[in-house]
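in:
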C-alpha cells in the first residue's frame, strides 16, 4: 500500500492552470467540498445564540460562511443589497430635506429594516407551497385566531398593518421601501401643510429669527412624523410573531445579507442604514428559531461606529452579536490539505507539497504562512501563484515558492489599498517611504523630508479621507508637529497590517492580528522598532538586513 501511494504521488504533477480555489467565495467551486466547520459556524447556526454579525478582514471567510449556511439549511433567504436598488434614497427630496434640518433619520431606517425583515420572515415561515395555495393574510388569520383566540384586539391591529400592505406584500423589497418613503412624505405634508416642491423655498423670504423659529418647528414635526411612523403597528406584529409564530428554536429560519461593503448606495446613507440594521438585528433576537445573519468587513464596521456617526447607540452594546473570524496555523493547514487532496484526487497533502526543510529549519508551508495574515484567501492566492510557477513538478521547491512570492506580495499590497481606501484614501502616498528600507528601523529614523509630497500637497482632500485627512491637515496647519504625525502615521500602518511594532527589546513583534498585542498609539515611541510585514517584503523591496540585532 505504501509503495502504491508513493508511486501515485510521483505521478501527480502541478499543471500550470490548476487552482486550489478562488479567492472569493462567490466563484470558489471547491468551497462546499473543502469547507472547514468551526466554532463560528456552530454559533451562527444555533438559534438560541446571539452571534449573528460576522466581522472580519477581507478574505477571512465571511462570505464562505454565509454561502455554506445558504446551501445547507432548509429555510434561508438572501437579501442582496445591490438588488434592493436603494440609490433613490440618496436623492429622496423628503429625506434630503430632513437631513438639511439635521433630523435624526435613524428611526426611519429602523422602520424600513423592520418592515423588510418582517415580510421576509413571514414568507419563510409560511413557505412557497403555502403561498400558492392560500393568501398569506388568511393563513396568518387562521393561525392567530383559530388556534389561540386570546389578545384579539392586538392581533387585529397587527393584521391591519399587514392588510394595509397586502397589495405590496410580495413585491420586491425596493418597491416596499419606496412605499414607506411615500408614506412618510404624505404624513409630513399633511402635518405641516408643506408640499414636497415647497421644501427648498421654506423660510427663504423670512427674517433670520423668524426663519430659525419656523425651521425648528418643522424639524420637531418631522421627527414626530418619523417616530410615529407605523411604530405601534410594527410593535404589535413583532409581538405576535414572537408569541405565536417563531416559538421553536429547532425550526430555524435564516435571513442572510452579504456584500454590504459594495457601493449599493451612497456612502453616508449606507453607513446610517447599516447602523440601523444592526440595531434591528439585536431587537429581532426576541424570536425563537429566526436569525438575521450579516457579514461586515472590519474597515466598514469602524466607519459605521467612528466618532459620533452612528446615532443609535454605542458599539459596546452590540458586542454579544459579533462573530470574529480567526484562523490558526493548524486550521489553515487543514484548509489547504482538503483542497490539495481534492485537486490531486488524494495524491498529495501539505506535507508532500511542501516537504523540504530549508536552512533556517522551517518548511515551505511555514515560509508561506509567515507571509499571510492567517486568512484563507491569502493561502489560496499564494498557492495558486506557486502552481503557476511549478512547471509540472510534484511539489513546491524553494525556487517555486520564491517566484510565487513576487506576484503574491504585489496582490496583497493592492488588496490593502482596496480594503482601506474607503477609510483613508490614497494609502500609497503614505507607505511609499518604506520602499527599499532596512527592516527593523526605529521611529526616530523616519525623516520629515520623506513625506515632503504630502506636506506640500495643495489639496489633500483629493487624496485622503477620514482620520488620515485629519492627520495630514493638522500637520500642514502646524496644529501638530512632525513627531506626532510620524507616530500616528505608523499606528495607521500598524492598524491596516503593513507594519508591526516591537515596543522594546523585551517584547516580541506584534501585528494587528496578535490577540495579546493590544497596541495603542501611545506604545509607539522613539525606542520602539518598526517591521514591515513579510507579506510585503517583495512588493516594497524591503532590505531584511536589520539596523539592530533582533530576531524576526
Amino acid at each position: 500500500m505504501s509503495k502504491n501511494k508513493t508511486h501515485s504521488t510521483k505521478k501527480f504533477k502541478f499543471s500550470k492552470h490548476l487552482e486550489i480555489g478562488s479567492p472569493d467565495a462567490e466563484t470558489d467551486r471547491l468551497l462546499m467540498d473543502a469547507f472547514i466547520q468551526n466554532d463560528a459556524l456552530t454559533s451562527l447556526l444555533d438559534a438560541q445564540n446571539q452571534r449573528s454579525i460576522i466581522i472580519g478582514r477581507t478574505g477571512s471567510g465571511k462570505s464562505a460562511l454565509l454561502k455554506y449556511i445558504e446551501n445547507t439549511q432548509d429555510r434561508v433567504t438572501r437579501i442582496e443589497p445591490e438588488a434592493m436598488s436603494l440609490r433613490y434614497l440618496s436623492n429622496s427630496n423628503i429625506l434630503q430635506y430632513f437631513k438639511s434640518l439635521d433630523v435624526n433619520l435613524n428611526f426611519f431606517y429602523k422602520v424600513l429594516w423592520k418592515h423588510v425583515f418582517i415580510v421576509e420572515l413571514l414568507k419563510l415561515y409560511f413557505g412557497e407551497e403555502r403561498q400558492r395555495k392560500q393568501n398569506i393574510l388568511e393563513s396568518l388569520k387562521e393561525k392567530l385566531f383559530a388556534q389561540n383566540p386570546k389578545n384579539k384586539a392586538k392581533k387585529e391591529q397587527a393584521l391591519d398593518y399587514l392588510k394595509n400592505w397586502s397589495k405590496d406584500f410580495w413585491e420586491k423589497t425596493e418597491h416596499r421601501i419606496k412605499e414607506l418613503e411615500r408614506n412618510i412624505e404624505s404624513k409630513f405634508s399633511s402635518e405641516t401643510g408643506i408640499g414636497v416642491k415647497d421644501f427648498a423655498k421654506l423660510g427663504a423670504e423670512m427674517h433670520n429669527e423668524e426663519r430659525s423659529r419656523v425651521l425648528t418647528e418643522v424639524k420637531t414635526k418631522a421627527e414626530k412624523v418619523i417616530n410615529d411612523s407605523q411604530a405601534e403597528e410594527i410593535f404589535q406584529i413583532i409581538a405576535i410573531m414572537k408569541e405565536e409564530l417563531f416559538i421553536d428554536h429547532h425550526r430555524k429560519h435564516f435571513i442572510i445579507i452579504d456584500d454590504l461593503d459594495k457601493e449599493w448606495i451612497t456612502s453616508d446613507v449606507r453607513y446610517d442604514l447599516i447602523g440601523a440594521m444592526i440595531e434591528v438585528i439585536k431587537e429581532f433576537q426576541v424570536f425563537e428559531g429566526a436569525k438575521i445573519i450579516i457579514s461586515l468587513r472590519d474597515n466598514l464596521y469602524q466607519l459605521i461606529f467612528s466618532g459620533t456617526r452612528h446615532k443609535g447607540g454605542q458599539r459596546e452594546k452590540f458586542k454579544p452579536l459579533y462573530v470574529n473570524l480567526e484562523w490558526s496555523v493548524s486550521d489553515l493547514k487543514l484548509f489547504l490539505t482538503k483542497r490539495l487532496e481534492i485537486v490531486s484526487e488524494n495524491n498529495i497533502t501539505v506535507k508532500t507539497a511542501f516537504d523540504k526543510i530549508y536552512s533556517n529549519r522551517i518548511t515551505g508551508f511555514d515560509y508561506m504562512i509567515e507571509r499571510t495574515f492567517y486568512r484563507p484567501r491569502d493561502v489560496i492566492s499564494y498557492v495558486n501563484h506557486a502552481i503557476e510557477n511549478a512547471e509540472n513538478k510534484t511539489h513546491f521547491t524553494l525556487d517555486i515558492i520564491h517566484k510565487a512570492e513576487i506576484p503574491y506580495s504585489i496582490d496583497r499590497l493592492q488588496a490593502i489599498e482596496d480594503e482601506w481606501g474607503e477609510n483613508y484614501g490614497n494609502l500609497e502616498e503614505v507607505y511609499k517611504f518604506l520602499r527599499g528600507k532596512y527592516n527593523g528601523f526605529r521611529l526616530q529614523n523616519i525623516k520629515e523630508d520623506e513625506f515632503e509630497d504630502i506636506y506640500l500637497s495643495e489639496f489633500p482632500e483629493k487624496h485622503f479621507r477620514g482620520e488620515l485627512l485629519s492627520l495630514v491637515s493638522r500637520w500642514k496647519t502646524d496644529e501638530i508637529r512632525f513627531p506626532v504625525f510620524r507616530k500616528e502615521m505608523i499606528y495607521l500602518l500598524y492598524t491596516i497590517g503593513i507594519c508591526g511594532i516591537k515596543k522594546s527589546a523585551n517584547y516580541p513583534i506584534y501585528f494587528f492580528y496578535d490577540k495579546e498585542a493590544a497596541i495603542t498609539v501611545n506604545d509607539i515611541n522613539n525606542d520602539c522598532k518598526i517591521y514591515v510585514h513579510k507579506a510585503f517584503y517583495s512588493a516594497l523591496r524591503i532590505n531584511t538586513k536589520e539596523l539592530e540585532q533582533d530576531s524576526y
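note: The chain has three domains: 2-22+328-406, 25-58+62-324, 425-536.
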